[in-house]
């Protein structure tokens, strides 16, 4: 019987082409896949295991933490800290860099993650996800400092997300295209179901939180206005709008049927240049979208070229089908 390509088989075959690969990376991805299976289980059990609702605590960004934000962060740490592949971790839910405990060996990679993306959706049973980015530690086998994590997105060795939707999927890139795997719960493995994913070039769909409309800058307002004008407007076609409030779900839709996703800079809170965080949201998602033939920009600059200045730095994000992103960028240039 043919079982299909498992995630482990896929990664091992990829790594065979890389001179000097030691198997560390393969093992790290295996641990990550385990963490994702455990998170998928916790998310799926929902109210049965008492994980719904919020805590009294806030994270460093002043957001109220959901119980599952903290549980999933813990799962990511415990599953990935022990094996000796990492020199440090950083996450949305931890103020500072997480140092690997002394009893464990250190390794050559850094892991950065958003353990539960779209967590406002957990209580209402709508898709959430996990986003991760793997970087090389500038100095291997040494406890990583904050500055070690401040690498532009172009330096990412691997980026991926897990989507806990109607099925659980793992989508990842190691810099040679994007591949999607679906969790077969009975078998307990991720199986390759979406080889070589590509963002369709033509699109009629956009995603933006329209409740922020009065705070948008003119280029974004212009773009959305033109989409809304439909067949009578300058675009000459009707557009459709979506907003899931889970970036993972939005990016997955874009990888499947195209479109554009925007969380742009707005004037709502001038101290925040956008909502999404560069290191564990914008960078990994930008690498995936670019690797699938799409584009990703702040409106002014390619996101992957940005030099990060802080672990929890926020950036404006405009990503998806290349032509649409280029159009929005051209509106920023013209403004
Ligand atoms: P997180 O749950 O990790 O804090 O991220 C939520 C993000 C992102 O996934 C989503 O696109 C956006 O916030 C939703 O923002 P609104 O609440 O403004 O819709
Ligand atoms: Mn998030
Ligand atoms: Mn989160």
Description:
- The protein is of the alpha+beta class and 335 residues long.
- It is 29% helix and 24% strand.
- The strands form 4 sheets. It has a 7-stranded mixed sheet, sandwiched between helices. A 5-stranded mixed sheet has the order 11-10-12-16-14, sandwiched between helices. It has a two-stranded antiparallel ribbon with strand order 1-2.
- α2 packs antiparallel against α3.
- The longest helix is centred in the first third of the chain and has 22 residues, at 24-45.
- The radius of gyration is 19 Å and the shape is globular.
- The mean pLDDT is 95.
- It binds 2,5-anhydro-1,6-di-O-phosphono-D-glucitol and manganese (II) ion (2 copies).
- One manganese (II) ion binds at residues 69, 92, 114, 116-117, 119.
- 2,5-anhydro-1,6-di-O-phosphono-D-glucitol binds at residues 63, 92, 114, 117-120, 209, 245-247, 263, 275.
Q: TL;DR of this structure?
A:
This protein has helices at 7-15, 24-45, 67-80, 146-149, 218-228, 247-257, 278-291, 322-334, and strands spanning 54-58, 64-66, 86-91, 109-117, 128-136, 158-164, 168-173, 178-184, 189-194, 205-207, 240-242, 260-263, 276-277, 295-297, 314-315, 317-320.
């Amino acid at each position: 019987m043919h079982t299909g390509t498992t995630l482990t088989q896929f990664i091992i075959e990829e790594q065979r082409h890389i001179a000097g690969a030691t198997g560390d990376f393969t093992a790290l991805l295996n641990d990550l896949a385990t963490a994702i299976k455990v998170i998928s289980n916790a998310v799926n059990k929902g109210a049965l295991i008492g994980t719904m609702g919020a805590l009294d605590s806030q994270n460093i960004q002043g957001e109220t933490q959901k119980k599952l934000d903290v549980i999933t962060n813990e799962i990511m740490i415990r599953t990935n800290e022990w094996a000796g592949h990492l020199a440090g971790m950083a996450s949305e839910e931890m103020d500072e860099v997480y140092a690997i405990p002394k009893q464990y060996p250190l390794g050559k990679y850094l892991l950065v993650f958003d353990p539960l993306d779209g967590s406002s959706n957990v209580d209402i049973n709508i898709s959430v996800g996990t986003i991760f980015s793997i970087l090389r530690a500038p100095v291997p086998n040494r406890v990583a400092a904050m500055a070690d994590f401040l690498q532009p997105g172009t330096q990412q060795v691997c980026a991926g997300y897990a989507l806990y939707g109607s099925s659980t999927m793992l989508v990842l890139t190691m810099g040679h295209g994007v591949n999607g795997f679906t969790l077969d719960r009975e078998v307990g493995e991720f199986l390759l179901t979406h080889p070589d994913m590509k963002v369709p070039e033509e699109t009629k769909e956009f995603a933006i939180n329209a409740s922020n409309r009065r705070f948008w800058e003119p280029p974004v307002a212009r773009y959305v206005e033109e989409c809304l004008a439909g067949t009578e407007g300058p675009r000459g076609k009707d557009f459709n709008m979506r907003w899931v409030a889970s970036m993972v779900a939005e990016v997955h839709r874009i990888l499947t049927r195209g479109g554009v996703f925007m969380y742009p800079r707005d004037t709502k809170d001038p101290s925040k240049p956008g909502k999404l965080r560069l290191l564990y949201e914008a960078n990994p998602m930008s690498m995936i979208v670019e690797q699938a033939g799409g584009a990703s920009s702040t409106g002014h600059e390619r996101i992957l070229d940005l030099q990060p200045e802080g672990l929890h730095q926020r950036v404006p994000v405009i990503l998806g089908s290349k032509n649409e992103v280029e159009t929005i960028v051209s509106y920023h240039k013209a403004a």
